[in-house]
Structure formats: C-alpha cells, structure tokens
C-alpha cells in the first residue's frame, strides 16, 4: 500500500526518476512498480567504519582498492 501511495501520487507525475537501494532478495518486490537494476554504469559507494557494511554478499563481487 505504501509503494502504491508513493509511486501513484499525483505530484510524482513530474518526477524524472526515483532511486532506491535494496538487497537483492527484495528486488522482485520493487520490480512490481517498475523499478529496474538496469541503471547504466552507476554504482553505490560507501565510506564507513563498520566492517559489517563492507562485506560482500554471497555471489556479489566486491572491489577493494
């Protein structure tokens, strides 16, 4: 209901894009509202002191330089 409300709100008609960060297991949920992971070369970056937030998920490549 929340996603229907946000995405369907009349003021959203002029919004060019909505960005969202989610875990891979919930991607099918957001695809129901037209979200896609095909976003070109864009990637999420993070700076954190919490090592749990930089762990690679199983099956995900992580690059450390």
Summarize this structure briefly.
The chain is mainly alpha-helical and 65 residues long.
Query: Roughly how many Å apart are the termini?
Result: 42 Å
**Which segments are poorly predicted (pLDDT under 50) over 5 or more consecutive residues?**
none
β-strand amount? under 5%
Biggest sheet, in brief?
none
- The total strand number stands at 0
H/E element string?
Answer: HH
Taking all Cα atoms into account, the compactness measure Rg is 15 Å
Structural class: mainly alpha
**Quaternary organisation of the protein chains:** single chain
Helix content: 10-25%
Q: Provide mean pLDDT, rounded.
A: 85
Supply the number of helical segments: 2
What gross morphology would you assign?
Answer: elongated
Describe what this molecule looks like in 3D.
The chain is mostly helical and 65 residues long. The protein has a domain at 1-8 and 15-35. It contains two helices and no strands. It has helices at residues 2-8, 27-31. The model has no long low-confidence stretch (mean pLDDT 85).
Descriptors for this entry?
single chain, 65 residues, 2 helices, elongated
Which secondary structure elements does this structure contain, and how are they paired or packed?
Blueprint: H1 2-8, H2 27-31
């Amino acid at each position: 209901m929340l996603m229907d409300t946000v995405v369907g709100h009349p003021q959203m008609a002029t919004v060019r894009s909505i960005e969202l960060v989610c875990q891979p297991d919930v991607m099918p949920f957001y695809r129901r509202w037209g979200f896609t992971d095909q976003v070109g070369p864009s990637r999420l970056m993070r700076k954190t002191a919490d090592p749990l937030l930089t762990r690679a998920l199983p099956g995900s490549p992580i690059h450390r330089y």
